[in-house]
Write the structure tokens for this entry.
Amino acid sequence: MWKFGQPSGRRNRRGAAERNGSAMRRAVAAALCFLGSFLGMLCSLGFATAVFSSSAIADGPETASPDKLSFVETELGESREGYFTLEWSAVDGAVLYRVRDDANEIAYEGVATKSFQSGLSDGSYRYRVEAIGEDGQTIATSGEAIATVKHWGLAPSLTLFAIGAVVVAGIVFVILRGRTIELQQLQLPQAAGHSGDVSKLESAVDPGRNE
Amino acid sequence: MMFPLWFLELIVVGGLILCGLGAAALIVFWILDFKEKRIW
Amino acid sequence: MNMAIGLEEQLFGGVVLVSSVDTGRILSQEAGYGMLVLFGLAWIGLGIWWGRRATTYDGFAVAGRNVGLALGTATAVATWVTSNTTMLAPQFALQLGLWGALAYSTASFGLFAFAPLSGRIRRLMPHGYTAVEFVRRRYGRLGSIPFLIISLFYAMTWLISMAMAGGKLLNALSGIPYEVGMTVVLVVCVLYTLFGGMYAVIGTDFVQSIIILIGLVVVAIAVIAHVDVADVHQQLQADRPMLLSILFPAALMALFNNMLFGFGEIFHSNVWWSRAFAMREGVGPKAYLLGGLLWLPVPIVAGFLGLAAPALGIGVSQPDTVGPMVAATLLGTGGALLVFVVVFCSLASSIDSLLAATSDLVVNDIAEPIAEQMTSVQATDATKRRWSLFAIIGLGVITWCAAYPNIGTLATVLFFAGPMVGSCIWPIIGGLYFRRSSPIAACAAMVAGTSLGLVAYFAIGWFVASLVGAAVSGVVFLIAMVLYPDDFDFNLLSDSPDAPIAVQSEGVAPIDPDGRGGMVGDIRGGGETR
């Protein structure tokens, strides 16, 4: 659809005075077309992502019947990162929700109808949520929600950690080596004594020295 | 194996100090640049 | 200390009960609108003021290529402190623990690594504008088409996620409707970028970076005043033990993934290249090094806000707003205003940079080549200047349309770009340092890295996608470079419209007298990266 300039092409921007207005407009139109198609691609990808991660989104589960307090999902499946979001239906008259775990300890307290749990180690976790009314009384209690946490194995994680370390080390090596060779190249002409050019070179490449 | 408390303290306090120094450094650089008229 | 926590819980409870939805808003809508108008007008005013310098396209696109150390450092910090640093870093810490906060801060290594590259870029292409321009000259069309697609995808996802973050954050802090907050943030940034171009972007970045750093210090000190670090540690140990675990598998996988994501973002993105072009010769490496150093503590301090939430008794419903919520809860109205400003600054400093740098891409790498092909005439300065205005407005409109429906969590949308940018690392550094890097190697590396990285994204998770992308593209790149070597003349990069090239090209000697691994370097005066 479009072509790029040749990589080695030297341009003469001074010859640009006689430009063709309509062609320019066409060019802009083409650019807009490109952007349009790009947007289409982006949107479809965005939607794919949204669908893929739909479990993580969810705004307002207010569709449930008002007096019954229950978790949206009672079986949360297996979390491999040790975090998940509990979500429950809203109850009329509730000013506060309190999530308790199997040890009856408070895992969340707040006005939202969801709670983010994280940092859990391997095991299975049961939760109940209570709705608290204005007078501080518990007006409803839900059934149980069960979540399981099973972390990724340590061996594959450490393998990926090691691969990452190797890749980063490779990148740093290339940059440092390239840098060193740049510096060595600097020494060469000076050692050889490019008499006339030296001052010119320095002024051309090192205005940063006035720092 | 847990990160020890001193490590958490170190990075939090160290981070705070570095943030503060950074803001100060920016202002100092600006004054230096301004004096020598090489901001832009 | 503990008594204070008790009091805070009561206060928080009271505050929370006032608000109807799931977040405790501390700032009234009126105050929110007031701050929006105040700072919006301030940025636009500053943009117009600095923008008076932008008389040529060079001024508009790369700020006259003469930016000094103070503004150079500040722009690196401010641009890299995105609203994700205030939203995602606490989320990261809450999901992946201390490793998560550390992993996030390793994104600053990208700035360190880019420091030497920026000097070389500036010298190899003294008249360059964009990263895609480099790839086009270095690798031709084979390399530049995938690179352009990746660049645009990344820029647009970042831009959109930033606009969405704006809407969400302003809503969470002051109850301004998502659509209104998002629109205002976007319109303000479009306006001042439109008036002032790169001058406005870099100038406002300086003010914004100072506000961000000071604001963060104040917020973190407030947190420490309310809760002991020891209490945070104890609470985490009891309730969320994995967050403190050194051997947290997902976090271990995420560490280098995040670092490589940062490398990929900075190495490939025109946001950083245009700054390398904009800084005065010799300033770039220092500014990027210092910028990295200043940025390093930001995610750790912000991440601590997330880790402190459980100890402060703050119920977390949505991990991505935990940071601002902790800050706003502890600091009352005055503090909420501060948080609001910090958030607005970090949003604006990234959105403006993206608008400016991406409009350069659209003008230099899409519109100009098309126009040249169709008319075989060079676009004038004035034409390109006009095109950039259209491009900035167009990007703003596209971003607005995509951000309006408010779908997806922030992390998911942004990390989708991870494998793509990860696969650009090797083509970029190879292209800058090896003369043997060939178009086939670059293209194959980007395509293979992106594809397999996306597979890993869906098969394992976002926390390995960049890592797989970078690793696969590195292997493919090196193999293809051996099989199909090139012999590139680095002089071809310094395409100049005017005379200075005569002097410059002597300095940029494309020689490799010792044949050391096919790497070449140009001659330089030393003392850039001490």
User: Anything to note?
Assistant: The beta strands of chain A are 75-79, 84-87, 96-101, 106-110, 114-117, 123-132, 138-141, 145-149. The mean pLDDT of chain A is 70. The longest strand of chain A covers residues 123-132.
